[in-house]
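Hi support team,

I submitted a single chain yesterday and got back a structure, but I'm not sure I'm reading the token output correctly. Could someone confirm the output below corresponds to the sequence I sent? I've pasted both exactly as they appear in my results page.

Thanks,
R.
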Amino acid sequence: MKRCSPRLALTVISCLWFGHAATRARADAPRPNILYFYVDDMGWGSIGPNGQAARRAKNLSSVRTPNLDRLAAEGLNFTRGYGCHVCSPARSSQQSGFHQGHTFADRNDPDNAKKAMRADEILMGDALSAAGYVTGYWGKWGYGGSKDQANPVIDNVQTLPTSHGYKHVLAELHHVRAHTFFQPTLWSAPAADDAIGGIELIPNSMGRYQRPADYPPTPALQNHADYPKTAYCDDCYSFAALDFVRHQGQTFNQTGQPFFGLLAVQIPHAPFGEIERLPEWDKAYADDPHYAGLADQTRQWAAMVTRIDAHFGNILAALEDPNHDGDPSDSIADNTLVIFQSDNGGPRGKNLVELDANGGLRGTKGSIQEGGIRVPLLMRWPAMIHKESDLKAGTDVDRVVDVTDLLPTFCELAGVAPPLGVDGVSLAPTLTGNGQQRTRDFIIHEAGNGQSIIRGNWKLVRSKKGVQLYDLQSDHAEADDIAAEHPELVRELQTLLLGERVDEPKGFAHTYHHWTGANGASVTDAANWSDYRYTNAGTTYLTDDGAPQLSWIAHVHNDGDRPNTARADADVEFLGLEIAGGKSKDASQSLVLGENVKLTGRNEVRLAAGGVLQLNGATVSTLRWVDVHPGGTLTGSGTVDGTLYNDGTVAVSGTDRPHLSIREDYHQSKHSALHVADLSQDRTPVEIQGTATLAGELVVATGDGFKPVPGQTYTLMAANRIVGAFANPDDEVIASDGTHFTIEYASDQISLHCH
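Hi R., thanks for writing in. Yes, this is the structure output for that exact sequence:
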């Protein structure tokens, strides 16, 4: 068996992925700047629209976040946004798009800093950098460096932000080292040419951020005579981000090159008391009559949150006036998507009690209950949200959004396909009002006290005590376990939850594999796939040299210049599978399924340009979708047990009454085509159990097996519901032999009338 080194694997994956994915993006896809504010341990109820505004209205103690409140008023507040239970898994899921069941970092494992971000992973920085964005990351990264305060070292180059597309970096690489706000040094990039991993240590000082007193107007920062020599690290992160936004904002106006910046501050994580080392640390609450009566920890926490809110305000102001000359005509705010989110829920503490920082949710950071995993989530993008979509400014949105959704969202907005098989789902169609919004049936989480699956309003919790079921719509605080009333639903949800690998032991993760087989070889044979080895500094973290399984992200790519075929004569399963042709137009790559074979791609089966999947009476099964990209083809007769997205070609063919059964929905884009051969009066060629959303072209082939009869009407498609129509002019189809058909539409059926 052939084996790819981690660095070679990254190169191969990146080149092939972007080479084939570039054709997937819509030609009219918006390319906004993306600015992502990410805080640490800030509970769901800590922002105005989730509870603090109501507390102020009742004259109760509250935390002040005027800039976040403005962001919510001008954008969307996703009231059912989810992170993870603690910081390391949240960052791994955020960056990779995979949930805790599929990543190394399903908990705060001390080894995460050495292993969690592999070279094989395509992270946010990788994706957006390759899409032409200028990238920056400032704050708590959590991977790649040691925890030593005095002289930290690089532990694993594969896991560094600079190894994953981030060019401008000021960060802490180990989460334990980030358990102080006054670490003496921070990691910075760009760095000297000989710096390991392209990143180097610099003093943690505000010296290089000296500005006039009014630039920016954050109270009591570096210009104060009593400001510490070693800086409060979140001040440094925020000023680095501010400088980046000012510079890149001007560059965007000049060249149109977009930027992606992620400010991942440590606030409001403990230790809380360190903020008191800053001059005038609580000046923002000088006029608050409630403030002095609060517990020390509450006052410290509130001051931390308000301090970072002021930094956010400075950066938002930089979007409106990048060159800081007082003239907003150079504003880039309209074309910038701004996101605010926390990594997990708020911890125990006086602030939770005195300020209701988790908004009445049950549980806290580290728990599987809503207080541990539901987080504040805001988005603002004036040029698209509210103008192009149906969403209005200041709206609360109850759509379930997981942290894994951000990577595919950014990819679609940047004009590239997301990495193969990720658990997240792009929100771009919701934000822009363009395209088909895909759905995710459920999200899952793990924590020290159990695992959960959320589907709609239902939440199942699996713990050592058994299983509990809650209706989150009527039971906000998860107080009423109704599992006994819904035994079938409990069994169904538990089966789905366990299928997401939440009970795997520490050290489990999905693996990456590439087809190495000769023309005509079998995909079920382990000898035809690359082995997987993840090693670093003499330690092997993960190996997989067997046959395909549900933890595989697999690529069947043709690297030659001639057609190539792989075969499956027995059932085979993957987490994600991509079939793609080579650079030559003749270098197609086919996967031919034997009769009655079942091919499973739990998260996705993707047919990229030059990729062909031939059914031959087989079944393709997925919990989500089969995705036919431009230049990709699904052909033959058989069953798609899942949703089918067609942005290429679907060809229903075969010698004996060709037939395609789709057990969920069918979506056909305006750039795609549906080909049907040999219409029959006794069998409908395309049957869809869900909704058929139509656009693009309909093509009909005729031949020896099918002689259309003038005046006869043939059923083409049956569905639970038909939405839209094919793009054929005048609703006419001219078959391959010149026969004319008229397309006739009903609410649940499409017919062809022969002339």
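A quick pointer for reading it: Residues 296-320 form the longest helix (25 residues). Let us know if anything else looks off.

Best,
Support desk
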